[in-house]
Design brief:
Shape: globular
Distance between the termini: 40 Å
CATH class of the largest domain: Alpha Beta
Number of strands: 8
Largest sheet: 8 strands, parallel, barrel
Number of domains: 2
Bound molecules: flavin-adenine dinucleotide
Strand content: 5-15%
Order of helices and strands: HHHHEHEHEHEHEHEHEHEHH
Mean pLDDT: 92
Low-confidence stretches: none
Radius of gyration: 20 Å
Structural class: alpha/beta
Helix content: 55-70%
Number of helices: 13
Length: about 325
């Protein structure tokens, strides 16, 4: 049932009337600030420094996706260069996460490649200056819907083959193909963040039930932990985190050989507890003005959020329909 609600909600979230509804309602806008650090780079750095002071690492995401022109893509890359400058100046213990459609993947893959190369170069430059381990500020390419998986992995492979090492990928346990993608990442020594997958996917490509996604996650996590290069496990699912901890203990894999990653605003108690126990915990901190698609994905993950949202939207739609028909008489 919760999968059906999630699908209905994610489908609805693309409609313009739903977008306008969210923007009109302070309550919903305010829900965004639970998950998003703020609109400016200063907000993001301030949150990163607070989290750092609590023993948590950070990855910063300047929100934005699906740009439709080369100019917008170049501006998004410039924003990331500025973010890297600010991370280095602060300094903050922060990596960055970005989306290729933000850097122009839909316009032209060569454009996204060019923009990402500029970002990687700046990340290396600051990494060397700050004398960070491996001379790098690490750059993670977030994974978008399955329509982008091939193009994202190909672009990463091209950079990797050209010698870039401060860049990693995300694989989604929800997709059937992820077993093969994991095997090829392991073979090449690519750094992987494993997540469940936040997008509404067509039946032929993705596990239909949450329980099978969780099973796939557990299996993939074991492979990455045993054979991967500094894997990152992105989840708030305590059962999966225990599973990862159990394997690490059994195989004598020390906690500095992997990361546990969680989203800003979700399970803060667990983030702090794990960090206190000596695990490396990295918090994904998004910021920026284009927070709506990110908020929609976070709301879709909780049945309670979805039910609340859908009932408010239905109520307002009914009210405005009856107001329109009253006006017509
Ligand atoms: C660091 C990080 C990076 C990510 N990067 C990507 C990416 O690149 N591509 C991608 O497709 N997905 C990404 N995701 C999202 C991921 O795919 C899941 O959609 C999301 O993490 C929820 O799944 P879960 O593993 O926490 O498990 P779930 O079973 O969904 O949740 C486990 C528990 O976590 C809590 N929880 C989960 N979500 C919420 C929420 N929204 N609000 C409040 N509580 C919640 C609840 O207590 C829930 O019971 C990322 C997630 C993280 C943590």
């Amino acid at each position: 049932m919760s999968q059906v609600l999630k699908a209905a909600f994610l489908g609805l979230s693309h409609r313009r009337d739903v977008y306008r509804f969210v923007m009109r309602h302070d309550l919903l806008r305010n829900m965004a600030w639970r998950y998003v650090a703020g609109e400016s780079v200063e907000d993001a750095i301030a949150v990163a420094q607070t989290l750092n002071s609590q023993g948590l690492r950070v990855t910063l995401d300047h929100l934005g996706e699906s740009v439709t022109s080369a100019t917008e893509a170049a501006a998004a890359a410039d924003d990331y260069l500025h973010l890297l400058d600010e991370i280095a100046a602060a300094p903050a213990d922060a990596n960055i996460s970005l989306k290729l459609t933000q850097l122009g993947l839909d316009v032209d893959p060569a454009l996204a490649h060019f923009n990402l190369s500029r970002v990687l170069e700046r990340a290396r430059l600051h990494g060397r200056r700050l004398k960070l381990p491996d001379d790098e500020i690490f750059v993670r390419i977030d994974m978008e819907s399955s329509a982008y998986t091939d193009r994202t992995l190909s672009l990463h492979a091209a950079l990797w083959d050209a010698g870039a090492r401060n860049v990693g990928v995300v694989l989604q346990a929800a997709l059937y193909r992820t077993g093969q993608d994991t095997a090829s990442a392991l073979e090449r020594g690519v750094r992987v963040r494993l997540c469940k997958g936040a997008y509404l996917e067509p039946a032929p490509v993705a596990h239909p039930a949450k329980s099978s996604v969780d099973r796939a996650y557990a299996e993939l996590a074991e492979q990455l932990l045993l054979h991967g290069r500094y894997p990152a496990f992105a989840t708030h699912d305590e059962r999966l985190i225990h599973h990862i901890q159990d394997i690490a203990r059994r195989e004598r894999i020390s906690p500095d050989r992997f990361e546990l990653q969680m989203l800003f605003g979700i399970r803060r108690d667990l983030q702090l507890r794990l960090a206190r126990q000596g695990y490396r915990v990295r918090v994904y901190v998004p910021y920026g003005r284009q927070w709506y698609p990110y908020l929609a994905r976070r709301l879709a993950e909780r049945p309670a959020n979805v039910a609340f949202f859908l009932s408010a939207f239905a109520r307002e739609s009914l009210l405005s329909r009856s107001a329109r028909s009253a006006g017509a008489t």
